[in-house]
# Entry
Amino acid sequence: MSILLSINEPWHYRNWEPVLRHLSPEEFTIHVSPWKWHLPEDPAIHAQHVRETMVWLAERGVRSICGSLEVEPNVFATLGIEPRMVGQTYTRQVRMLYAVISKQYTYSDKNLPYDEIFVASDFGRELMERQGVSARVVGYPKLDDYFNGVLTRESARQELGIDGDATVVLYAPTLGDLCTYEIYAEALTEVASRVEVLSQLHPVSYLKEGPRFEGLRSRTRMISPLRAGIEAVVAADVVLTDYSGVIFEACATDTPVVLLDQPGLEMTDCVERVYRDAGDRVESGEALVKAVFEAIDHPARHRDRREYYRDTFYAYHGEAGPRAAEALRVNEELSRKARERDIDLIYSKLRRFEIGAGV
# Structure
């Protein structure tokens, strides 16, 4: 076992897949474990979640394992922040960012236990280094197919079963207290009466906040958690979001964005709260409806800001997957050489002891 990728659900795999296509199957192993921080403390639920993820992977021809590890990997790679592997002397622990937002943990000192963080641009690297965290710029792999022209508006709509000529608005809120769903729910209903509205939730919202969004299912077409991804952003004519990393994914794909403000929200230095000039900002349902149809009618508005965020937040357009794969190999080599060095030192000491003892 060389490179071990720890994933918690299909969404994690969808983020890693653009990297894994540049590795051979012999180079990595996928380990599935539950999201212990987001699922109820029930072993049966955890086990079911793991089984469902492994079945999903198997249906796509992807082999995975679960349970305890018998062999120490050279690299332990994650998307979320996970505890270091206890007792793994030579394992390099790395993390690949799945978004460019900051939300109190993405660019925080919580990353210090990691040997290296893979970030999307120099912007992210500088934020990490302010916290004393080692970072490597690899780009944003899940956008590779878009930047390379493989994922287009037409192909994304075909994958999602959307009429190619329809006007489509994507509603993609964040989770928890920063989510503004209740403020704008009625306005979403009005927009959905005139154009097609897709809804794609935060991955944790699918796990924990189902009842909260029950009304959204009757108002809009909900994307299932198994199909959630960058395709919905590419397929949309306009993206509606509040404080989600989807803001900047929309910028990268040149999709007009409308920003749903939470009135009275305290300003912080979090990326998604500071950089809010990528589209029109609204604070009421009435303003939301107006902004949506203005964005549909005038898609070139704010394009200069979208281009700025695309170039600032995302490096190596279309080349991030192979760069991340190579970064995994570099860390694997560092681990392997450290192990070989220490083994040589141990054997050297043993040989000196044997010679001194006259053995």
The mean pLDDT is 93.
